[in-house]
């Protein structure tokens, strides 16, 4: 039996729409499920008190510190490197073999799974360079991991700065670097910040690369050479070792909220950037 | 800046431009340096195709893990690819622009949910459901596939949407002008024109599924044996590394790095494949 084109269209739209709905529901369900169970546990006290008994009791304050410090360190290393790379790719060279190789390297790095970063960070920073399980090892590993994100978004942002801005700057007698510093980068800033926020979001949610490099100490770190535990790692350990389901939900809620907030900030900046451009 | 000068700046930038590439090479070098000598000593065939993983007895065959990784990844693709592509087609071709403008960022936002959270949902919700309705231990290849499938949905969907939107509007108008319905146009023209982008999205999603570690550890059960059915517990390559790394020493640790080498090679192949597919599209335009 042949079905009419109109009917085929109706069936197709129903199926496709259904699939979209299933996807959205699954993803939204995950967020709400965790928030519903977790927010009961979360309180100011939960956020600001020390963990006791391996996280079975008490709050998550030490992991909050770890979650702030590690991404900060990672991004303060990756950001300058990433911006310089993208400036070089866009402003200082034409498309040639070098840019192709650099782009290929960046793409490959972006696709490497976090467990490989964990292995690398462990053998290189922790063992070979003797940094031990520390904030420094973890931060450096995360820096390598988020570098491709920073490079890509900065490159897009710099490319979006209109040609005419540069032409005006050059016609005023500015050198290339002056143009980059005074014209290109300030105008690309919101786009670059978007990349930084995305990098922070990814670092906050990372587990595999962090657990083998920064360790999982629940004590408050006093220097870059102390081990620390991020919220994601804390949540993983609580859930996996069945230490406390309740606190696991609480940690997960805080984790999801922070990641979503950071990413929302990224989108907000991206939209402002696009609005300003057009 | 006058101290360094234009040439100096250029040189500094050139050096930093190689940071990502040198990081990649450094990673490859260290993983290979730890893992490859072991593979040579142990024998590639024994390492890949023997199913005995008994570190205490010096037996390091990763075949069960290899099989588990393949099964879980294929399962994740079976869940994620149809849903992701269908969603992308619906949002880009049938949904109103305003709906898409809200849902696409929302889906990308959900891609940022940490993998451990997905794993946790798998343990708390999905595994008990599978155990009570289909039997088996619950923590299984099936659970892993579904969770990973959902995790890679945003990747596949967002890349597919981008490539569908990149199809020129004239293609749509042309097919409508010939009397085709919207669906016929989508099916016969638009999806084919966007094919390479969609395939690239699927390949990148696949890379993410193979490389995912923590979520899989939590939901797949981690038993070291060649799985017989989708309801069996299984341990993937990534899970094997992460589970034993914390206490492994000597040969055992090298074997784990060798597992990392296998994973590294697979990922590089997949990424190159995705790059080639996208390049082919650009060249044809």
CATH class of chain B: Mainly Alpha
Strand content of chain B: under 5%
Mean pLDDT of chain A: 90
Q: Using the coordinates shown, work out and report the CATH topology of chain A.
A: MetI-like fold
Count the DSSP helices of chain B.
13
What summary fits the major beta sheet of chain A? 2 strands, antiparallel
Strand arrangement, major sheet of chain B: 1-2
Mean pLDDT of chain B: 89
- Helix/strand/pairing class of chain A, anyone? mainly alpha
The percentage of residues in β strands of chain A lies in under 5%
Query: How many discrete domains of chain A?
Result: 1
Quaternary organisation: heterodimer
Q: Percent of residues of chain B in helical segments?
A: over 70%
SSE succession of chain B: HHHEEHHHHHHHHHH
Q: Which term fits the overall shape of chain A? A: globular
Report the principal-axis shape of chain B: globular
Structure description:
The complex is a heterodimer of chains A (278) and B (285). With 278 residues, chain A is mostly helical. Chain A has one domain (44-277): MetI-like (MetI-like fold, Orthogonal Bundle), CATH 1.10.3720. In chain A, 77% of the residues lie in helices and 1% in strands. Chain A has helices at residues 5-39, 44-48, 61-92, 97-111, 114-128, 135-159, 163-171, 176-205, 208-211, 231-240, 245-277, and strands at 51-52, 57-58. In chain A, strand 1 (51-52) and strand 2 (57-58) form a beta hairpin. Chain B has a single domain (21-284), classed as MetI-like fold (Orthogonal Bundle). Helices cover 78% and strands 1% of the residues of chain B. Chain B contains 13 helices and two strands. Chain B has helices at residues 5-17, 19-42, 44-49, 63-94, 97-110, 115-134, 141-165, 169-177, 182-193, 195-211, 214-220, 237-244, 250-284, and strands spanning 53-54, 59-60. In chain B, strand 1 and strand 2 (59-60) form a beta hairpin. In chain B, helix 2 (19-42) packs across helix 13 (250-284), helix 4 packs antiparallel against helix 10 and helix 7 packs antiparallel against helix 10 (195-211). The longest helix of chain B has 35 residues, at 250-284. Chain B starts with a helix and ends with a helix. The chains are: A mainly alpha (278), B mainly alpha (285). At the A-B interface, helix 1, helix 3, helix 4, helix 5 and helix 6 of A face helix 1, helix 2, helix 4, helix 5 and helix 6 of B.
């Amino acid at each position: 039996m042949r079905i009419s084109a109109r009917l085929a269209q109706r069936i197709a739209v129903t199926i496709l729409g259904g699939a979209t709905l299933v996807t959205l529901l699954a993803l939204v369900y995950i967020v709400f499920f965790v928030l519903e169970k977790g927010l009961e546990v979360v309180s100011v006290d939960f956020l600001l008190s020390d963990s006791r008994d391996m996280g079975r009791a008490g709050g998550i304050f030490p992991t909050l510190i770890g979650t702030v410090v590690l991404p900060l360190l990672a991004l303060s290393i990756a950001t300058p490197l990433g911006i310089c790379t993208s400036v070089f790719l866009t402003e200082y060279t034409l498309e040639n073999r070098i840019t192709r190789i650099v782009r290929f390297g960046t793409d490959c790095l972006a696709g490497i799974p976090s467990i490989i970063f964990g292995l690398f960070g462990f053998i290189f920073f922790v063992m070979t360079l003797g940094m031990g399980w520390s904030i420094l090892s973890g931060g450096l590993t995360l820096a390598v991991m988020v570098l491709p994100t920073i490079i890509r978004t900065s490159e897009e942002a710099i490319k979006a700065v209109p040609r005419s801005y540069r032409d005006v700057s050059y016609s005023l007698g500015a050198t290339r670097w002056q143009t980059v510093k005074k014209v290109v980068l300030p105008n690309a800033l919101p786009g670059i910040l978007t990349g930084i926020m995305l990098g922070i979001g990814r670092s906050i949610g990372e587990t595999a690369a962090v657990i083998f490099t920064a360790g999982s100490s629940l004590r408050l770190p006093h220097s870059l050479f102390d081990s620390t535990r991020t919220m994601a790692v804390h949540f993983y350990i609580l859930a996996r070792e069945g230490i406390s389901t309740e606190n696991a939900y609480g940690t997960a809620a805080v984790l999801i909220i922070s990641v979503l907030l950071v990413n929302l900030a990224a989108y907000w900046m991206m939209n402002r950037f696009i609005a300003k451009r057009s | 800046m006058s101290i360094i000068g234009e040439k100096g700046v250029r040189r500094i930038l050139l050096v930093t431009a190689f940071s990502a590439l040198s990081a990649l090479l450094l990673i490859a070098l260290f993983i290979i340096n730890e893992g490859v000598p072991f593979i040579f000593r142990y024998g590639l065939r024994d390492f890949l195709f023997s199913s005995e993983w008994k570190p205490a007895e010096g037996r390091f065959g990763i075949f069960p893990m290899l099989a588990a990784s393949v099964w879980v990844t294929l399962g994740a693709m079976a869940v994620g690819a149809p849903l992701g592509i269908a969603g992308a087609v619906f949002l880009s071709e049938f949904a109103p622009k305003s709906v898409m403008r809200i849902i696409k960022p929302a889906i990308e936002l959900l891609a940022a949910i940490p993998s451990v959270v997905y794993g946790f949902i798998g343990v708390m919700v999905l595994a008990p459901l599978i155990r009570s309705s289909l039997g088996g231990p619950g923590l299984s290849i099936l659970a892993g596939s579904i969770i990973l499938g959902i995790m890679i949905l945003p990747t596949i969907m967002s890349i597919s949407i981008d490539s569908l939107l990149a199809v020129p509007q004239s293609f749509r108008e042309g097919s409508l002008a010939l009397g085709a319905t919207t669906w016929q146009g989508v099916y016969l023209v638009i999806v084919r024109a966007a094919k390479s982008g969609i395939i690239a999205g699927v390949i990148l999603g696949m890379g993410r599924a193979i490389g995912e570690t923590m979520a899989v550890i939590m939901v797949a059960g981690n038993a070291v044996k060649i799985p017989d059915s989708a309801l069996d517990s299984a341990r993937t390559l990534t899970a094997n590394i992460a589970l034993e790394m914390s206490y492994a020493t000597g040969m055992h640790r090298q074997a784990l790095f060798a597992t990392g080498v296998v994973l590294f090679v697979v990922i590089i192949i997949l990424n190159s494949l995705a790059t080639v597919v996208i390049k082919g599209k650009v060249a044809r335009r």
